[in-house]
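Researcher: Re-running this chain for the archive, since the previous output was lost when a drive failed. Same request as before.
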Amino acid sequence: MRIYLIGFMGCGKSSLGKRLAKRLDYPFLDIDTETEKKAGQNVQGIFETHGETYFRSLEQEVLYATTEHDRAVIATGGGTPCFNDNMDFMNANGVTVYLKMAPQSLAYRLEYAQRKRPLIEGNKGNDLLQLIYDKLAEREPVYMRSNCVIKGESAKPDQIISLVFGY
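Model: Regenerated structure tokens:
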């Protein structure tokens, strides 16, 4: 089984995904990391050099390649489900789990994160919070098409296992 973790940037998809994969003894894949490998540069560099359209195309190629794994925990990028037919693809090829977080929690995490994120660069405080509200208004209808929704602030691997596998 493939488990796709989705949600807004900073909600913990990668860190929780690694712990979940270890608990299940599944491989862990991070769509952003795999896209960076394919492009030979980081996400920010891809955006700056080639633009978002190119990035989303490359990201979709990487997403589709996840079907090479019968079992895996896959952390998607925050925008991955919202472009092309990616959400339909993930729902057809695995179980999607939305790590839902309050905008204030996301703003706190993102403001103090070490990793740079091109879509929020230069935003802090109330500007960052407003940007999160605006982006969530666009993305949440897609995120809510997930098979499972879990509170991101307190999500644990065992909760996801219980939701996905029913035990």
